[in-house]
Design brief:
This protein is α/β, with parallel strands linked by helices. The protein folds into 3 domains: about 130 residues, HRDC domain (DNA polymerase, domain 1, Orthogonal Bundle); about 180 residues, Nucleotidyltransferase, domain 5; about 80 residues, HRDC domain (DNA polymerase, domain 1, Orthogonal Bundle). Strand 4 and strand 5 form a beta hairpin. It is flat and about 65 Å long. The N terminus is likely disordered. One of its GO terms (molecular function) is nucleotide binding. InterPro entries: 3'-5'_exonuclease_dom, Exo_C, HRDC-like_sf, HRDC_dom, HRDC_dom_sf, RNase_D-like, RNaseH-like_sf, RNaseH_sf. This is HRDC domain-containing protein.
Length: about 475
C-alpha cells in the first residue's frame, strides 16, 4: 500500500465513480479498490466513560526538584544515561511574556530514571551537558512540532521521534489533546490549565512544577497503548513516516516570524505596501528582542497591515489604541515611523514582489469559470478524499491538506491536455496513476498517503477526461 509504481493492468471500468459524480471513490467492491476499514476495528481503542476516569493531580513519585545548577543537571544526565528506552520530553515556554518560544523548563522521564525537571534559563550550558544522552536517545513527545524548535535551540536532535498526538490522529481521534488521550487509553487524565502561565518567572510555584511533571508522567504508557492499536490496524508504518516528517521539518532553532508569514499579508496587493510591512516587521522584531517581550506587545500584526495599506496615515494610526487597548509607546513609535519613511523612500527596484499566484497557479476561486477541468477535478478530489476519510476514520486534513489537493488538481489539468505525450500509449490509465503519485510526492505526501490517495483520485481523473 505504500507504493504507487507497481500497478496492475486495469481498465477504465475498474475506476468508475459513484453515479452522478465526476470522480468520487472507486465503486464499492471494484477491482483495485482498497476495502474501507471496518468501523469496529477503529473502535478497538478502549474508551473509559468520564465517570471512570481518574484525575491525577500530583506525580506518583512526588514533585521533582528543579535542576537549576550545573551539578544538578549533570546528575539528571547520569540518571537518564542509566535508564532504558525512549525519553519522554516536554517543554514549558513563555512566548506570551517573552520575545520568543525558548524553553524555560524541560521535563524528561525515562524507564529506570524517573522524572526530572531542568531549568535551562538558570543553567546556560544545560543543553550542552545533556546533549550526549539526549542526542543518542529516541524521544516521546505529544504535539512534537510545538516543542522541537525549543529543544533544537538547546543543541538537541533526536535520532528517532515518537509523537503520541500523531498516533491519536492516525487512530481516528477527533480530539487528540494529551488529557483526552490519557483518559481514553489509560483511564486517567491530568489538568491542562497552566500552559499559558509565565514559565519565565522564578521561582516556579510547586503547583506549576507538579503540572509540568505530569505532562511526561504517562507518555511512555500512552505510547505503548497507542502502538498496540496502530499495529492491530496495520498503521504502524504510517505512524513512523509521519513522525519522521515532523522530526525533519521542525528540528530547527526557535526563530522570529518572517514578514511573509504574517497573517493577512496576502491582502497587500502592491509592492510599496509590502515594503512597509517588511520594514515594520523587522523593526518590531528588533525592538521586541531588545526588550525581551513578545513582538505583538510592540505592535500588533493587524496594525502593521493597516499602516501598510495606508502608509500616509502612519503617524495617526500608530498613535491610536491597538486591538486590546494597548498603545504603542513613544520610543517605539519613533522607530516604527522611521521604518515607514525608509520603506516609502526605498528604490522601486528593491521592493518585494507581489505573489499573485501559488507556483504559477491561478486563484482557485476563478477556476469554475475560467478553468473548468481544474475545477471539476478539484471538486471530484474533495468528494473522493471525503469518502476516504469516512472509510479510514482519519480527518481529511491529515490525509492531504487542501492547498496540496488544489496543486494536484491544477497540475493534472495542465498535464492531461490531448497534446501531451504519454497518455495515449498501451496503458494511459497507468500513466495517469504514475502522474498522480509523482505529484503527490512532490507536494510532500508520505508514502502511506500516496498509497491511499492514488486509488481514490485516479477515477476522478479518468472520469473527468472522458
Amino acid at each position: 500500500m505504500d507504493g504507487h509504481r507497481h500497478r496492475p493492468v486495469r481498465t477504465r471500468e475498474c475506476f468508475r465513480p459513484r453515479p452522478g459524480e465526476c470522480g468520487g471513490s472507486p465503486a464499492r467492491g471494484g477491482h483495485g479498490h482498497r476495502k474501507p476499514l471496518e468501523a469496529a476495528r477503529l473502535g478497538a481503542v478502549p474508551h473509559h466513560p468520564d465517570s471512570t476516569v481518574q484525575h491525577l493531580s500530583r506525580p506518583r513519585e512526588g514533585v521533582p526538584t528543579v535542576a537549576d545548577t550545573a551539578s544538578a543537571v549533570r546528575r539528571v544526565t547520569e540518571a537518564l544515561g542509566d535508564g532504558r528506552g525512549p525519553i519522554a520530553v516536554d517543554t514549558e515556554r513563555a512566548s506570551g511574556f517573552r520575545f520568543d518560544d525558548r524553553a524555560y523548563l524541560v521535563q524528561v522521564r525515562r524507564e529506570g530514571a524517573g522524572t526530572h525537571l531542568v531549568d535551562p534559563a538558570s543553567v546556560s550550558d544545560a543543553g550542552t551537558l545533556m546533549a550526549p544522552v539526549m542526542n543518542e536517545s529516541p524521544w516521546i513527545l505529544h504535539a512534537g512540532h510545538s516543542d522541537l524548535p525549543a529543544l533544537t535551540s538547546l543543541g538537541w536532535r533526536t535520532p528517532q521521534l515518537h509523537d503520541t498526538q500523531v498516533a491519536g490522529r492516525l487512530l481516528g481521534y477527533g480530539q487528540v489533546g494529551l488529557a483526552g488521550m490519557l483518559g481514553d487509553f489509560l483511564g486517567v487524565t491530568v489538568a491542562k490549565d497552566k500552559g499559558r502561565e509565565d514559565w519565565s518567572a522564578r521561582p516556579i510555584p510547586t503547583a506549576m512544577l507538579s503540572y509540568a511533571a505530569l505532562d511526561v508522567e504517562l507518555l511512555i504508557e500512552l505510547l505503548d497503548s497507542a502502538m498496540d492499536q496502530l499495529t492491530s490496524l496495520g498503521r504502524e508504518a504510517w505512524y513512523h513516516q509521519e513522525c519522521q516528517r515532523i522530526r525533519v521539518d521542525w528540528s530547527h532553532p526557535v526563530q522570529p516570524q518572517d514578514w511573509r508569514q504574517l497573517r493577512g499579508i496576502g491582502s497587500l496587493r502592491n509592492r510599496r505596501g509590502l515594503e512597509v510591512a517588511r520594514r515594520l516587521t523587522e523593526e518590531r522584531t528588533r525592538i521586541a528582542r531588545e526588550r525581551d517581550i513578545p513582538p505583538e506587545q510592540v505592535l500588533r500584526t493587524s496594525s502593521i497591515l493597516d499602516v501598510a495599506k495606508s502608509p500616509s496615515k502612519a503617524s495617526r494610526q500608530l498613535q491610536r489604541p491597538q486591538s486590546g487597548g494597548r498603545r504603542v509607546d513613544r520610543a517605539a513609535r519613533t522607530l516604527l515611523l522611521q521604518a515607514v519613511q525608509d520603506a516609502l523612500s526605498a528604490d522601486a527596484a528593491e521592493l518585494p514582489t507581489v505573489q499573485r499566484s501559488v507556483a504559477g497557479r491561478p486563484d482557485h476561486r476563478h477556476w469554475a469559470k475560467e478553468y473548468p477541468l481544474a475545477h471539476a477535478l478539484l471538486q471530484g478530489f474533495r468528494k473522493a478524499v471525503g469518502h476516504l476519510s469516512e472509510d479510514t476514520g482519519i480527518r481529511v486534513e491529515d490525509l492531504i491538506v487542501v492547498r496540496h489537493l488544489r496543486s494536484v488538481a491544477w497540475d493534472v489539468s495542465e498535464a492531461s491536455a490531448p497534446t501531451v505525450p504519454g497518455f495515449t500509449g498501451e496503458d494511459p490509465v497507468g500513466d495517469l496513476e504514475d502522474l498522480l503519485g509523482s505529484l503527490l510526492e512532490d507536494c510532500g505526501c508520505r508514502p502511506w498517503q500516496v498509497g491511499l490517495l492514488v486509488p481514490v483520485l485516479l477515477p476522478v481523473v479518468v472520469d473527468c477526461l472522458d
